[in-house]
Automatic annotation (TrEMBL):
InterPro entries: DNA-bd_dom_put_sf (IPR009061), MerR-type_HTH_dom (IPR000551), MerR_fam (IPR047057). Residues 91-118 form a coiled coil. PANTHER family: MERR-FAMILY TRANSCRIPTIONAL REGULATOR, REDOX-CYCLING DRUG-SENSING TRANSCRIPTIONAL ACTIVATOR SOXR. Transmembrane segments: none annotated. It comes from the Bacteria. PROSITE patterns: HTH_MERR_2 (PS50937). The lineage of its organism: Bacteria, Pseudomonadati, Pseudomonadota, Gammaproteobacteria, Vibrionales. One of its GO terms (molecular function) is DNA binding. This is Hypothetical transcriptional regulator. Residues 13-81 form the HTH merR-type domain. SMART domains: HTH_MERR (SM00422). Keywords: Coiled coil, DNA-binding, Repressor, Transcription, Transcription regulation.
Length: 129
């Protein structure tokens, strides 16, 4: 049933409000993505933008990439066509993000050990008084 619904949706053209609801991005964010060139060749009906399901999916992808730490400028450099990214370059960036996250985790682990040490030392001092 869901596959039938998705096929049915692919033929649909959406105004920005509906594209916003389906993607989880605000209309302002969608306009920003378009102005930056992340979304391109958006059809218009007069002054209204008309989005399709592939645009909605690409907006979701942009939001997910941002949650992984990619900036909009990073993403702009990865766009190679309408709703298409250079996936090999994406893999490279994700490897870098993994390395950065591992380093940050190591630093935070050290910080937590120091915090625990100071907390215990302070607690000892307070217990002595």
């Amino acid at each position: 049933m869901q596959a039938l619904y998705i096929c049915w949706l692919r033929g649909f053209k959406l105004y920005i409000g509906e594209a916003s609801k389906r993607s989880g991005a605000s209309p302002k964010a969608i306009r920003l993505y378009e102005s930056l060139g992340l979304l391109s060749n958006i059809k218009r009906n007069g002054s209204y933008r008309i989005y399709d399901e592939s645009d909605v999916e690409f907006v979701r992808l942009i939001k997910e990439a941002q949650m992984l730490g990619l900036s909009l400028s990073d993403l702009k450099e990865l766009v190679v066509g309408r709703n298409e990214l250079n996936w090999n370059a994406v893999i490279e960036i994700l490897h870098k993000k993994e390395d950065e996250a591992e380093k940050e985790i190591a630093c935070l682990t050290i910080q937590m050990k120091k915090i625990e040490k100071y907390r215990l030392n302070i607690q000892k001092c307070l217990d002595c008084h």
